[in-house]
Design brief:
Oligomer: single chain
Structural class: alpha/beta
Shape: globular
Largest sheet: 6 strands, parallel
Distance between the termini: 27 Å
Radius of gyration: 28 Å
Length: about 550
């Protein structure tokens, strides 16, 4: 089948989000054909180029979210009226209360998409004075949020600019019969703006939509807007818009696949139907950890290991204070912190942690003539002591995770592949991932973290037992193979239950009865031409990939008669 893979700031760009799992998905499902529809976030992302693409990628369509050129089209009276009606409905639905506004928002959204398809010129209209006036009226209407009523003209201008960027996919030329209309299924790799093309493909052509979220786009927007510099009215209205958009995406999706239970709870609260949800854990490469996992006794029995990206959310400060308690109980214990800093904030945080470690643990020496040594080391993976990620986990007996905010804990799964006993804080999907194969303590509780670490350092048999159970659990649930198997089954389920409508027209322009044989609706990978259905690209072929409506060839007309 043909899959339209929808991404925002991700695959196929080298620096894209979730590019690894998208690449594994495309390469692993070689029996399907993929067309990539990618939205880029920055110019630098486009300049960095793409990752190498496999042969099953047919076409790549890209569009920038960081810039847009007005096509210069000036609306006539009728088009201006259509835009004003749809945009005022959109603004009204965003500003109104939460009850029974889904249909109003959807009608306005698809009205704008139809206008862009018929007339063009939507980018300029979304920036126009008409759009600002629509928001002004919506903010003054009864039932609007109190914060929205306080919006001033600069706030409304900023809001219109934000929404023009969010609605930019409505103006793309992807919605044709040889574009997204030719897909058997649209797979959005996140919610929000990335899923907008999928919504329009479903609206215009009936193409079913699958939405995968390993992090909730709406939650990310909430966190980003809370730290932003926009006025309160702008933040409130943007949050309301993204909440409406998320609800519409979940409502129209045939299936929604969260990566963990934490994401699933967010989706359900945002309106996703529980019957449509299938949890699919991220797939990770287990082979590179196999050697360490099969020989779990390689590590230093007195060493704790932390591996990850250094940033405030990882709460290394609590880990250092916990290790101070560990040293009181186990004087030989050591802590290795392996990983680089994330950006300027991460560099500053790493510097703070190094200063704290020097204060808590002055260099110690065994005798008067020995060189002092600090029991805490800060290292980067790739150095002589830890040339690979697997070597980093192999260097210690216990792996520690101290985060206060966590999505899907990749580092924890890697430690499980390595057969390491783990001590983790209860953040994000940690409990779901670890199951009963590790110790879990509350976040920001150094004493509880220290007690759990000491318990494992003093009990090698328990460490070995937990490490073996953790490795078995990771190999069962979190491998690339299980991820590919799950998505292959979901693709077949969607196409079997929600096939995109196909209509074959004869020479007279009327639909041909029985033009598509029953086999055309059976998902699968044909090995060669079949009776009544030719292989892809063969002359006179008729298959489920024909787009509604399509003019029949002479062969098809003969068979339909």
């Amino acid at each position: 089948m043909r899959i339209g893979l929808l991404t925002e700031g991700g695959y196929p760009y080298v620096s894209g989000d979730a590019r690894l799992w998208c690449d594994r998905l495309v390469r692993g499902l070689g029996q399907h054909e993929f067309d990539i529809y990618a939205l880029s976030r920055t110019r630098s992302q486009e300049d960095e180029g793409w990752v190498p693409l496999p042969s099953q990628v047919g076409r790549v369509h890209t569009a920038p979210l960081w810039t847009a050129d007005d096509d210069g089209i000036v609306y006539g009276r009728r088009a201006r009226r259509r835009f004003a009606e749809s945009y005022e409905e959109l603004a009204g639905a965003v500003c109104a209360g939460p009850d029974e506004q889904e249909d109003r928002f959807a009608s306005a959204l698809y009205g704008l998409a139809e206008l862009a398809r018929d007339e063009g010129g939507l980018i300029g209209a979304l920036r126009s004075e008409t759009a600002v006036h629509a928001w002004e009226r919506a903010c003054r209407a009864p039932g609007a949020p109190r914060t929205a009523r306080e919006a001033r003209v600069p706030d409304l201008l900023a809001l219109a600019a934000h929404l023009e960027r969010a609605l930019r996919p409505l103006s793309l030329d992807w919605y044709e019969t040889d574009g997204l209309g030719a897909a058997d299924l649209c797979h959005a790799t996140s919610g929000g703006t990335a899923a907008l093309p999928g919504l329009l493909a479903r609206h215009f052509f009936g193409v079913p939509l699958l939405v995968t979220e390993y992090g909730v786009q709406l939650r990310s927007h909430y966190l980003a807007s809370g730290a932003g510099t926009e006025a309160p009215a702008v933040r409130v209205l943007l949050a309301a818009f993204h909440r409406r958009l998320a609800a519409e995406v979940y409502r129209q999706a045939a299936i929604v696949t969260p990566g963990n239970a934490h994401t699933r709870r967010w989706q359900e609260r945002c309106g996703a139907d529980r019957a449509k949800i299938r949890t699919v854990h991220p797939g990770m490469e287990a082979a590179r950890f196999a050697e360490v996992g099969e020989s779990p006794d390689r590590g230093d029995p007195d060493t704790l290991v932390w591996v990850g990206r250094v940033e405030p959310a990882k709460d290394l400060v609590s880990l250092l204070h916990a290790f101070a308690e560990v040293r009181k109980a186990e004087p030989k214990a050591r802590l290795r912190i392996l990983g680089g800093a994330a950006g300027a904030e991460g560099e500053a945080y790493l510097g703070h942690c190094k200063v704290l470690a020097a204060q808590l643990f002055p260099d110690e020496a065994e005798g008067a003539y020995a060189v002092g040594d600090n029991p805490v080391s800060f290292e980067e993976i790739g150095g002589p002591e830890a040339p690979t990620l697997a070597d980093a986990y192999a260097s210690g007996a216990v792996t520690v995770l101290s985060s206060v905010v966590e999505g899907f804990p990749v580092g924890l799964v890697e430690a499980m592949f390595c057969g390491r006993a783990t001590v983790s804080t209860d953040a994000g999907a940690v409990v779901e991932v670890i199951g009963g194969t590790g110790l879990v303590v509350p976040p920001r509780n150094p004493r509880a973290l220290a007690e759990a670490c000491v318990a494992l350092l003093r009990d090698p048999e328990r460490r070995e037992r937990l490490g073996a159970a953790a490795r078995a659990r990771a190999l069962e649930l979190f491998t690339v193979e299980q991820n590919l198997t799950a998505f292959h089954g979901i693709y077949l389920e969607i196409v079997a239950h929600c096939p995109a409508p196909r209509v074959i027209l004869g020479d007279s322009g009327e639909p041909l009865p029985f033009a598509l044989p029953a086999e055309a609706y059976i998902p699968g990978c044909w090995t060669g031409p079949t009776a009544g259905v030719a292989a892809r690209g063969a002359p006179g072929s008729v298959s489920q990939e024909l787009v509604s409506p399509v003019r029949a060839t002479r062969l098809a007309a003969t068979e339909g008669a």
